[in-house]
TrEMBL record, chain A:
Alphabetical GO biological process terms: stress granule assembly
Organism this protein belongs to: Miscanthus lutarioriparius
PANTHER family tied to this protein: ATAXIN 2-RELATED (PTHR12854), ATAXIN-2 HOMOLOG (PTHR12854:SF7)
Domain Sm: 67-150
Transmembrane intervals: none
Compositionally biased residues, Low complexity: 416-426, 452-488
Gene Ontology MF annotations: mRNA binding
Signal peptide range: none
Bias kind Polar residues: ranges: 1-12, 347-363
Name of this chain's protein: Sm domain-containing protein
CC terms in the record's Gene Ontology section: cytoplasmic stress granule
UniProtKB/TrEMBL annotation, chain B:
InterPro entries found in the cross-reference section: AD, Lsm12-like, LSM12_ABD, LSM12_LSM
Source organism of this protein record: Miscanthus lutarioriparius
Pfam families: AD, LSM12_LSM
PROSITE patterns named among the record's database cross-references: AD (PS52001)
Protein name: AD domain-containing protein
Domain named AD: residues: 97-190
Coiled-coil residue windows: none
């Protein structure tokens, strides 16, 4: 080493120079001077060198040696594989080369990957060894192989994110340095020792995973899970009627999913082609705020369009689907299936979108409860007459047909009360409830299926009353909002044309809401609206009232999330209230349910 | 064996076989006669195709800034045979080749650090089976080597031969857990490759 140390300022700290490696081979002692020597060589050998602060440029007319040196320098810090004469391959980090002489190579953190010597003609891993610094003399050297070397120099060497610094890759560095690299993509295959990853794919034929995470965790670590599914969803009652209920449910589901819809999102989900108008680019399709309805404008209560959203029916729906009659089910929704929620959807199976004006009023009229009967009738008929034109009538036949089987299901005696009342909030929700269906629907066989009939005798009654209440309530405002209803030409009725006629069951128990009922939406300050005071006791989790703002509307189905809460499977939120009224021995005022801002319900009611 | 020197011009794309049985194809970056070292960079596939099609395309094969290639520095005397595929331009741009020493050293530092971390994970003088157990444990637990013992979470110690019985130390819960994991891992290792390890 001929005084090479003097140029150290250009080079990394002196410590670097000392390859105090373990003298594996003879040349090791020279290691310390190696890269200094290399740099110096570069600097001194060609006169045309310009020295920038940090770098060394190769001048024009570079000698081949300079090029070699340049490349080798670029290799410093890279992982390389060095092939040696006896066939072994040593892998490590390229540290230095002896450019003075014949370019022996020094590797740090090196290991013999493949041992070509006589001793081991296989991978040398009898015993795992720690990596060390190795020196490979030039005469042994066959090849140095390095991957992913940037021969042209790295971009923006002074940039904040040298991509050389693998441990501190930041996004900008990652994205910046990529210059059009198309890689051949290989399918991932697990490493040798990783076959356990396949556990993730253990599915049995049905697609259910055969791996239970909770069991595994308990077995492995003794961790007990306290997960109880029923806290988060409605308890399924697995009883003798389970299959029927399931069938009902699937039918409803199919119906809902098969519905026509104008909503582009739903249409897409269902595979319906809506027609590509309006340059529906991705933004409009997927991210823009929907503006096709005028929900944003404030509409006075009576002018509000009774959207089908008011799914009182949905309220009635429970996970335990009762083979109720289609009442609930049939009313369809404008575009959404939401209205379909009705449990008793059997009939609704046949119901198509663009549903029909639900003859809620029918029900109401048909099954007046106690005193209100007459009153309702009158109202309903009035309403129905008015709204004739707006309703698209549904093939009632279907409904009827559908309804029949229900009826046969053996509930009788009990007024179908449970069904009918799609507690339409007057105008809202029941858009067309009051409508013309009345005319048509009068003939509808009232679906008398006792709602829960066999399963929950008590509850059905109550639900019945709830429903009735709801419905009556619904009908009441019909008068005033009828105009608004009339204005709804495109709204679809949520009434269930197939619903059976209500027959009052004098034996029906009156409904008494449990204390937990949530009070109805307080916005109804309108004089014509009446909310029974005693309804203030809220039933947590049960959104009360129909046609409530979407927040409620979005969960029209009320789940009985409390184990001990109301016995009924489905609660007609409006029902109880009305029920209260009923008990009060008939008021002169109809109960109006009104959702201040009935927006078109666009979601699904689950 | 002395390969023909004239053919080793810069920019030429050659296809070669070495005496060790390797085959490759790449473009010559540099050739140093005195040391007989040939520097080749392996072109990315797309460019290689281009090379064949249009030989004299400007910039083909040139290593742009930041572009990464695989590089071989090969002693020419180990080339058994080779053939010229095409001729291209100088892959290096002499006027813009800069060596940023700081960056280079920084890179080396980082690589060394990384390698050290990985080296920590490897036990010295331990059997491959032990190493696999260690690796398996390290997937979910912090583990270190202490000579030939595996130390988990700095508390629980597992000695050779790394059976659940050899687990000691730590809190009861931690101990139990390590035992279970070891048990599980062993079963899995054995079931997967019966007899692979001694």
């Amino acid at each position: 080493m001929m005084g090479m140390m003097s140029h150290q300022q250009q080079i990394a700290p002196p410590s670097r120079g000392s390859v105090n490696g373990f003298p594996h081979r003879k040349l090791d002692r020279e290691g310390s001077g190696r890269h200094e020597s290399k740099i110096n060589l570069v600097r001194s050998s060609s006169g045309g060198f310009t020295n920038s602060e940090n770098g060394i440029k190769l001048g024009h007319g570079s000698h081949s040696r300079d090029r070699l040196i340049y490349v080798l320098t670029q290799l410093i810090g890279h992982h390389v594989d060095v092939h040696v004469k006896n066939g072994s391959i040593i892998s490590g980090i390229f540290h230095a080369t002896n450019s003075d002489k014949d370019f022996g190579v020094v590797l740090k953190m090196a290991q013999v990957i493949k041992d070509g010597s006589a001793r081991g003609q296989r991978y040398a891993d009898d015993v795992v060894k720690k990596p060390e610094t190795m020196v490979i003399p030039a005469r042994e050297l066959v090849q140095v192989f390095a991957k992913d070397v940037a021969l042209g120099g790295d971009e923006l060497p002074k940039g904040p994110g040298h991509d050389k610094r693998k441990d501190l890759l930041i996004d900008s560095a990652i994205s910046r340095s990529h210059y059009l690299e198309e890689r051949e993509l290989e399918r991932w295959a697990p490493d040798e020792g990783d076959s356990e990853c396949i556990e993730l794919e253990k599915y049995d034929r049905k697609g259910n995973r055969s791996w239970d995470q909770f069991e595994t965790n308990a077995a492995l670590f003794g961790v007990k899970s306290t997960f109880n599914e029923e806290i988060y969803t409605t308890k399924l009652e697995r009883g003798p009627h389970m299959r029927e209920l399931e069938k009902h449910a699937s039918r409803i589901a199919r119906e809902i999913e098969g519905e026509d819809t104008k909503d582009i999102h739903l249409a897409e989900e269902r595979g319906l082609f809506l027609g590509d108008d309006l340059d529906h680019d991705e933004e409009i399709k997927y991210s823009a705020v929907r503006r096709d309805t005028d929900n944003s404008k404030y509409k006075p209560p009576f002018a509000k369009i009774p959207s089908s959203t008011c799914h009182v029916d949905s309220f009635n729906r429970t996970v335990n689907i009762d083979p109720k009659d289609s009442l609930a089910s049939s009313s369809t929704m404008d575009e959404e299936s939401s209205s379909h929620i009705f449990d008793d959807t059997d009939a609704s199976a046949t119901i198509q979108t663009n549903s029909v004006s639900q003859p809620t009023s029918d029900y109401l009229s048909d099954r007046p409860l106690s005193n209100d009967e007459n009153r309702l009738d009158r109202k309903l008929s009035r309403e129905s007459n008015e709204n004739m034109d707006n309703r698209k009538l549904q093939p009632e036949n279907n409904l009827s047909d559908g309804a029949r089987p229900l009826i046969s299901e053996g509930l009788d005696g009990r007024p179908s009360s449970s069904h009918a009342y799609e507690p339409s909030s007057s105008g809202q929700g029941f858009k067309s409830r009051e409508t013309p269906d009345l005319k048509v629907s009068v003939k509808h066989p009232s679906v008398t299926e006792p709602v829960t009939s066999s399963q929950r005798p008590g509850s059905s009654t109550s639900s019945t009353s709830e429903r009735i209440a709801a419905n009556s309530a619904a009908s009441a405002p019909g008068l005033s909002p009828s105009s608004s209803i009339g204005s709804l030409t495109s709204e679809k009725s949520t009434l269930n044309p197939n619903a059976k006629e209500f027959k009052l069951n004098p034996n029906a128990k009156s409904f008494s809401p449990s204390a937990s009922l949530r009070p109805p939406h307080p916005t109804s300050s309108d004089a014509s609206y009446y909310y029974p005071n005693n309804m203030q006791a809220a039933r947590p989790g049960l959104p009360v009232g129909m046609g409530f703002p979407p927040a409620y509307g979005a969960q029209p189905v009320m789940y009985n999330t409390q184990p001990g809460a109301s016995p009924q499977g489905y609660m007609n939120p409006a029902g109880p209230q009305y029920g209260q009224q009923m008990m009060m021995g008939g008021q002169t005022r109809p109960v109006y349910y009104y959702a201040p801002e009935m927006q078109q319900y666009r979601g699904r009611n689950f | 064996m002395e390969a023909g020197g004239e053919e080793f011009a810069i920019g030429v794309v050659i296809s070669a076989k070495t005496t060790l049985g390797e085959e490759f194809e790449g473009q010559i970056v540099a050739f140093d006669r005195p040391s007989n070292l040939l520097v080749i960079h392996i072109l990315p596939k797309s460019l290689m195709l281009l090379n064949r099609i249009s030989i004299s395309q400007e910039g083909v094969g040139r290593a742009e800034r930041g572009e990464r290639r695989n590089v071989r520095v090969l002693k020419a005397n180990y080339i058994r045979e080779f053939s010229v595929v095409s001729k291209g331009d100088d892959p290096l741009d002499p006027s813009s080749c800069m060596l940023d020493l700081n960056a280079i050293y920084a890179r080396e530092d980082a690589a060394l650090r990384q390698a050290e971390i990985e080296a920590e994970r490897i036990g010295v003088g331990v059997t491959p089976e032990a190493q696999s157990i260690f690796d398996a444990l390290s997937k979910t637990l912090p583990v270190q080597w202490d000579k030939t013992d595996i130390v988990v979470m700095k508390e629980v110690r597992v000695r050779s031969p790394y059976l659940p019985e050899n687990v000691s130390g730590g809190t009861a819960a931690a101990n139990e857990r390590v035992k279970k994991v070891i048990d599980f891992e062993r079963k899995r290792l054995h079931s997967r490759v019966p007899g692979q390890f001694s």
